[in-house]
Amino acid sequence: MHVAMVTAKLPSPQETTGRVRLSRLARALSRYGTVHLFAALRPEDMAAEGRRAGEGLEPFSRVVTHAMQERPLGRWSMTPEEYRMFPDALVRAVAAGNEVHPFDAVVLGSVAAGRAVEGIQRAAVVLDVPRVDSVAREWGLRGSGARTAARLLSLRGWRKVEAWHFQHADAITAARASDIPRVRAYRPDGCVYVPNGIDAAECAYRAPSQRSGNSVLFAGPLWYEPNVMSATILARQVMPEVRRRVPDATLTIAGRSPVAQVWELASEHVRVIGTRSGVTTAVAEYAVFAVPAVEGRVPETRMLDAFASGCPVVTSADALPDPAAIVDRHYVGAHAPLQMAQAIVRVLEGRGDFDGMGRRASALALSYDWEVVGETFARVVLAAAERRRA
Q1: Rounded to whole angstroms, what are the CA distances from 185 to 60, 169, 177, 287, 377?
Q2: Can you tell me the distance from the alpha carbon of 4 to that of 202, in angstroms, rounded to the nearest whole number?
Q3: What percentage of the chain carries pLDDT values higher than 90?
């Protein structure tokens, strides 16, 4: 199979979930043929591209990159900025590669890369949706209160662009279960759930009864607004109640690029770790992994890593990354801050009671190993290419 993967960012270095996802999905596809990367470079990608210095990039057989381009279309343009900034040179490079050796499939790493399929006729187009961008932008407008005419037009533009690609792609995969109904509103014939995965080999299992200390962990990207809100609830409202019952209880908030609001949470009992490295192996050091729910949003955390490691998870169904997880079987359910504090105390004071839950949660999480997730994605692409050839 001959595949083009087109992305709106470089899948390296693998310091964010989005870049990890692109690389792992490509690795799964490479087992069935060659995968060529056509990547638009954002400003933050330029340093990584410079370090690469023209060398190869695993697992791609060929890498073509071009910087995002400025394309001013006027103050009131409905065309989303990121979409219109996708490089013309990259669109031409995909078309030229298809002319030389026709692709069986063109995989779009997001809607933002959608311009690359202009002029592609015979190849199957598979759209991966890490998130429905218009939903995130709508929430951003609500949170900022700046509902200006220009920003509202941009939001309408994203919805229009997304709708077109949802309707015209040969196959669609989505990383978030909550996004599947949104895609199926335009494509009732289907959208395949291909969640973000974990590295099972890196998840060191430790039973709850074997975990010492009274440390609570929250981990995830700390620039992402729902994560900031969730961590703030945990530090300001939940942990003071926990400490009334367990005076030596502490909280660690770990993740990439903490914003100022997160750094301000640091105190004698709250540690903030701004790290670019993963926290997978560090989960074994904690007694509880806690994620307060945020109304209308799903925090992006390392909850699956916690499940896999056997660390008891205290959260609400609204914050779960996996709809298959069952309360009191895989996690301890709690919604309001006081409920969450009580649940955390219950785990800290009786952690041996949660060994069975730890084993079940670990078994569930390991089914999300990237090897398994990647194979699901590869089969979607293979099936789409076969339908095109038929």
Answers
A1: 34, 14, 14, 41, 21
A2: 30
A3: 63
**81 Cβ neighbours under 8 A, 6+ residues apart:** 154
CATH of domain 2-197+369-389: 3.40.50.2000
* Cα separation, 179 vs 192, whole angstroms: 11
pLDDT tens, 50-77? 888 888 899 999 999 999 987 655 544 5
* Residue 173 three-state SS: strand
Q: Is the peptide bond before 87 cis (omega within 30 degrees of 0)?
A: no
Q: Could you tell me which residues come within 8 angstroms of residue 260 by beta carbon, excluding any fewer than 6 positions away? A: none
Superfamily covering domain 200-366: Glycogen Phosphorylase B; (3.40.50.2000)
Residue 3 pairs in a beta bridge with: 35, 105
Radius of gyration over every alpha carbon of the chain, rounded to an integer in angstroms: 22
How far apart CA 37 and CA 292 sit, in angstroms, is 38
**Biggest CA pair distance of the chain:** 69
Contact between residue 115 and residue 91 where contact means Cβ atoms under 8 Å apart: yes
**What is the C-alpha separation between 355 and 336, in angstroms, rounded?**
25
Q: Which secondary structure element, helix H or strand E, spans residue 273, and what is its range?
A: strand 270-274
Place of tokens 């084993």: 359
Query: Model-level pTM greater than 0.70?
Result: yes
Q: Are 150 and 75 in contact (CB under 8 A)?
A: yes
Token pair for residue 153?
């037009």
Q: Write out pLDDT tens, residues 296-325.
A: 677 888 899 999 999 999 999 888 865 688
Nearest to residue 317, comparing CAs of 307, 305, 328, 306? Answer: 328
The C-alpha torsion from 140 through 279 and 129 to 29, rounded to 10°, is: 160
Helix (H, G, I), strand (E, B) or coil at 155: helix
- Listed by start position, the domains of the chain span 2-197+369-389, 200-366
Average pLDDT, integer, range 179-208: 90
